[in-house]
UniProtKB/TrEMBL annotation:
Domain of life of the source: Bacteria
CDD domains assigned: PBP2_NikA_DppA_OppA_like (cd00995)
Keyword hit for Heme: no
Occurrences of domain Solute-binding protein family (ranges): 78-428
Organism encoding this protein: Pseudodonghicola flavimaris
UniProt keyword annotation of Transferase present: no
Keyword field: Signal, Transport
InterPro entries named in the record: Peptide/Ni-bd, SBP_5, SBP_5_dom, TAT_signal
Similarity remark: Belongs to the bacterial solute-binding protein 5 family.
Signal peptide per UniProt: 1-28
Protein name: ABC transporter substrate-binding protein
Intracellular or extracellular location(s): Periplasm
Amino acid sequence: MKRRDFLKSTTALMGGTVLYGLATPAFAATPVSGGTLIWGHSETTQNLDMHQTGTASTGRVLQNVHDSIVTVDKDLNVIPNLAESFEQSADGLVYTFKLRPDVTFHNGKKMTSADVKFSFERCKDPATGAVNFEVFNAVESIETPDDLTVVITLGSVNAPFLSRLAENGAGVIMPEGSGDVQGTTPIGCGPFKFVRREFGNEVELERFDEYWGGPAYLDKVIAREITEPTVRLTGLRTGELHMINDIPADRIAEIEGDPDLQVVSWFPLNWDFVNFNHDFEPFKNPKVREAFDYMIDKEALLEGALWGQGAVTASPSYPTSASYNHDLKQRPQDFDKAKALLAEAGYGEGELSVVFKATTNYPYHIEAAQIMLEWFRMAGVNATIEQLTWSDWLSQCWVDKDFQITMMNFFTLWEPDFLYYSLWNTEGAFNYRKISNPMVDELTAKARVTVDPQARADIYKQVQTIIHDETLDVILWFRNGTIGAQPSVMGLDTIVHPNGSNLNFHRVWLQG
């Protein structure tokens, strides 16, 4: 299939369901225990504290170490997990969780309500630096009437409270008093326990035989951090690696045609956008931000950087979400319009200079930035690129907010409050662009106290309109997810979490 034909076919999925494909051996097999699976992880892990980490790359590993109090099913409905049941009061202010009695942490301690109270209060405490702290802003009290009961009382309605607890960030339960060690030696109650991490090289996990959901099949999972796509693919072909995620976009068709390898593909894995630092003087002017949007041909960029492995979108909402705003359309590439907007903002041709910081952690970001820089120059902007390691990007762009223009992708943000409050509210934990829009702040706060699902969805559609009209960021595309694996890797139909990002090795096994 030609790249542009593929693009058209994936774009058609935007109004439908998630794409998920798996090529597996034709025969059925009985799972067996044992063996170490070597996973070629496309990214590097950072802080291992599940409350503090903001990177999907780390969460993808820790998904196997921790469990949350509730989770979601394949349709993203909230269901019990560490809590065997939960109830919400009629006024929406009191949540009662009944915990499973058979949950054991990796340190041998039985989980009780005291651990839940500790975990939630730790996440809420500003001193912790938790990225999901605002989930607990409305919490007035956490009571533990007995070892298996937790009662949480809110001061005001927080409609997305349960769904925000369904992710292994806010909802993860840690042993009481374990906060000091979580960043280096995480302790959870998931199917695998943490053994070691060689920073920038690999993470080793070992089966936890006391897992409440039944022990995993694999003895161990070793996540080798290999950000260079060609090296990762070579490791799969030579048998050094059992599986890899993120097959290089230009090699997917080749791997799909190889009878000696398996391929899992799904849509979407993540979405990408171009970011402006709203404290950088030129980008304080919405006309300048809009001008940059007119410089970008989104379909051409998708094909040039991703070989068409995804679908362009004007909205970052999960494509099957009720909050997805189908009325938004991306601006077309128009250099004359871009130059006119820059002139209106006081920047003549050659008078504006920008530095584009992109991370080598995502090689396709480097390719995309190089393509965009040519377009920026064609519009009369002096543009240069600065390539950063993942650690440097996180330090400079995420933490210090020291950039002018950059590009990033986000995973797992299927829940609209997590998406829009975290990224675009002035106080949002993921607002590294220094965006402060009073209307967005008002609407994202209003959505939290709006119980009716359709009314909430309509509010988020308004938020998307503001993001687009004010060009707070430039939304580019959804990207497909892919896994390549040896024929011996079984259970791949269970590995992708419903959020499209996390990988769960609980039911994966090695044949022979």
